[in-house]
Design brief:
single chain; alpha/beta; Rossmann fold; 2 domains; six-stranded parallel β-sheet; 17 helices; about 15% strand
């Protein structure tokens, strides 16, 4: 395997050498790369709109394609596109690990910016988990030069910069704590409320609890316990399961045994926040999103010891979110039923981990990109 990966890297480097040799940098060209989805993310859409509006002379190229085993051949040829545009762009912004970025040597004029696709990361990831059970293989990660060649990384605060620096194996002075464009999107999310209520009018009848769970590689019946203690008489309950969870547990929906649970598949997690009176999550970065909107948020972590041993957390949740973290679903719903949530808990969390909630993160990031483009 090591020999094959080494040969793969060197053949890409040879191809890229000739691409670089016969191309020139276009100083007005900005490249966005992602393999999170085949479609443009919210971050990409907001930056694209702002660049076209304020800097119409800039050329924007957006390449998005998911990499999975069944499409490796087509993705291989997609990398030729990535390499050509990396060789001819002044600035590249990526929102995840991109093979050609990390394994190739680039022209000195190219500036590469990494934008973590989530807002904050409660759980450890990247280089933080290489020796953890849930992490990537240590040997493979180093062979594929995971997260190398970034010049800057966009974070959401000085505090998140510290664990981002660890996760991406980057110096702290390369962190740029101006926030994600997605923050701006969240601050306007209440506009989606009418669309959801039109589709689900019964949500008007009671306060709504939105439960968003992250994925676990191991089997667990946390959903069953959650549903069995949910306060259906007093609250609407919406459950949104991380899509990756179905990769490990295709039948995970079997734990959602009550037909009073709303799923709302037509709307994404962020849109569902517009109707949430209370949010519940676990180790998901969703807690940063609900904090931005100052929605009373609880953490349901029945497998806390098991999860932290396998993965680890960047945040001491019991310290940072006092009195709203529960290992027992019944106790959590009793606390919710008391209706005496201390809003200082979620506000303090927001102020510490998401320092820019002014609605100008898109503008600040685009200005940063343009500055690098013009130098």
């Amino acid at each position: 395997m090591t020999v094959l990966i080494t040969l793969f890297k060197w053949h890409l480097r040879l191809i890229y050498f000739f691409i670089k040799l016969f191309t020139k940098i276009d100083h007005n060209k900005i490249l966005f790369l992602s393999r999170q989805s085949n479609n443009k993310s919210i971050d990409f859409e907001l930056m694209e709109k702002d660049i076209h509006k304020r800097f119409p002379d800039k050329k924007l190229v957006i390449l998005t394609k998911v990499l999975v085993k069944k499409n490796f051949i087509s993705y291989y040829f997609h990398m030729y596109k990535q390499m050509y545009h990396l060789a001819t762009s002044k600035v590249c912004l990526a929102d995840t690990y991109i093979i050609p970025i990390s394994v190739l040597n680039h022209k000195k004029e190219l500036t590469i910016i990494e934008l973590c696709h989530g807002i904050g990361n409660l759980k450890k990831f990247g280089y933080q988990t290489l020796k953890k059970e849930s992490g990537k293989g240590d040997k493979l990660s180093h062979l594929m030069q995971m997260h190398e060649h970034y010049d800057y990384l966009i974070s959401t605060s000085e505090e998140t910069s510290r664990f981002y620096a660890e996760a991406f194996n980057m110096p702290l002075d390369k962190m740029v704590p101006i926030g994600n464009p997605k923050i701006d999107y969240l601050l306007k999310i209440k506009n989606k409320k009418k669309d959801i209520l039109k589709k689900y009018p019964h949500l008007k009848d009671k306060p709504t609890i939105l439960y968003v769970s992250t994925f676990r590689r191991y089997e667990d019946d946390y959903l069953k316990e959650f549903v069995s203690h949910a306060l259906f008489d007093k609250y609407n309950i919406i459950i949104n399961i991380h899509p990756v969870a179905y990769k490990y547990h295709p039948d995970i929906d079997k734990y959602i045994t009550d037909d009073r649970v709303y799923r709302c598949p037509e709307f994404n997690t962020q849109e569902l926040l517009s109707v949430a009176d209370i949010a519940i999550t676990d180790y998901s970065s969703f807690v940063f999103e609900s904090a931005i909107l100052e929605i009373p948020t609880y953490l349901y972590v029945p497998d806390y010891e098991k999860y932290t041993a396998k993965n680890g957390l960047n945040v001491d949740i019991f310290k940072e979110l006092p009195n709203v973290v529960f290992k027992d679903a019944k106790k959590m719903f009793k606390a919710i039923d008391k209706d005496n949530y201390d809003m200082n808990v979620i506000r303090n969390f927001k102020n510490k981990y998401v320092s820019n909630c002014e609605g100008n993160a898109t503008q600040l990031l685009v200005d940063f990109i343009i500055d690098k483009c013009n130098k």
